[in-house]
Amino acid sequence: MMEKDTFIFGIYPVLEALRNGKEMESLFIKRGSNGELFDEMLSLARKMEIPVHMVPIEKLKRMTQGNHQGVVGIASHIGYVPVEEIITTAFEEGRSPLLVLLDGITDVRNFGAIARSAECAGADAIVFSSLNSAPVNAVAIKASAGALMHMPVCRVHNMVTTVKNMKNYGIKIIAASEKGRTVYTEYDFNEPTAIIMGAEDSGIDTALLKISDYMVNIPMKGKVKSLNVSVASGVLLFEALKQRMK
Fold first, then answer.
1. Mean of all residue pLDDT scores within the chain
2. Pair 102, 224 in one domain
3. pTM for this model (two decimals)
């Protein structure tokens, strides 16, 4: 059985965890907290791209009944890998990288389902932003059927900057959008590729669409004109697998 979220609370326990590189999904700090220890905590969290939430003390009391001293961290179930490491490893092994970028996917079950398809299709990594994204928690791991325990996951602070860096490596960026003019089967997935999937309500951020190399669509015949994001991800990923197996 997958364990529940693990809380680390108290100034020194949280600070020592950060100093020793312990991955966290989120860090919750009481509003108005200040001092050298809190400054160091915030600095380390920024370097590790851990989302920080300044919250009222009532929020912390609901999270734990322990002596939290104004800070509670949620330990990660997985470790995160730098995007650059994933890309360079693939090229060094003579493979064409295939990455899945999740922009604003806040539903943990969709996150997990996408990861499951990505792992089954042989993608190199899932990449997501530390801002406005679902946490990689026990629910996400369960929804992924354990795939999140096997495949690399990259957490980044700025998705636009990350995509620009990918392009410098020669990665082609394709954005899945109903407004795309290219049918997804027409794209050559043998190219080094990063697939961007956006939130179902708002879609992919405009800034990401502007720097994408292609916008691809999945043809629809029914009256409903869109797929669940996890289903759409699976369609694209298994087209990539089909092309790469030829």
1. 93
2. yes
3. 0.85
Structural domain boundaries enclosing 31: 7-75
**Among 193, 110, 114, 180, which residue's Cα sits nearest to residue 153?**
114
Cα separation of the two ends of the chain: 39
Instruction: List pLDDT tens digits, range 107-142.
Output: 999 999 999 999 999 999 999 998 888 889 889 999
Do both 234 and 193 map to the same domain? Answer: yes
Q: Report how far residue 105's alpha carbon sits from residue 228's, in angstroms, rounded to the nearest whole number.
A: 11
Q: Dump strand ranges (E) for the chain.
A: 7-9, 24-30, 52-55, 71-75, 98-103, 125-129, 153-156, 172-176, 182-183, 193-198, 214-217
Does any domain span residue 1? no
Q: Are 187 and 214 in contact (CB under 8 A)?
A: yes
Structurally, how many domains does the chain consist of? 2
